[in-house]
Amino acid sequence: MEGFPVAEHIQERGFETFVVAYLRRQDEWLESDFKQQVKGARPWAEPVADWVRRRERQELLNYAMSLTYFGKFFGRGNVRPVLLRRGQPQDFAAQAFLDVIGARIPPMRVRAAMPSNV
User: Fold this and answer.
1) Using an 8 Å Cβ cutoff, are 80 and 18 in contact?
2) 112 by DSSP, 3-state: which?
């Protein structure tokens, strides 16, 4: 794994490394981010358009850059993008993670373990 310092560091301790990158439509990500701001009771004084531009400047909506960044530190072969879409089963994200790590848990147990705000 030459050249991937974070992955090498973890693997030296006997663990496999994967980055599970959950990606959803940017507008849905922005909606979720906005809701987190509101739930966190953060003061809100800027227009929504300015907030969106700030998120764009921070490149939080540039998924290609994010995946490239993860690949730089963990190796591209260790990055597992998971696309989240409306209408998928409620436990889709958890099941995708379990698939990446090779674990099998009956779907009903996954649902029972999930917090309601996922």
Assistant:
1) yes
2) helix
pTM greater than 0.70 (yes/no):
no
Q: Which long-range contacts (CB under 8 A, 24 or more apart) does 55-64 make?
A: 55/30, 60/29, 60/33, 61/26, 61/29, 61/30, 63/21, 63/23, 63/26
Extended strands (E) in the chain: 19-24, 79-84
* pLDDT mean over 58-71: 87
- Kind and range of the H or E element at 49? helix 48-57
Q: What is the mean pLDDT of the chain?
A: 81
- Give the tokens for residue 118: 């996922």
Rounded to whole angstroms, how far apart are CA atoms 68 and 72?
6
Whole-angstrom distance, CA of residue 38 vs CA of residue 58: 20
Q: Is the pLDDT of residue 57 over 60?
A: yes
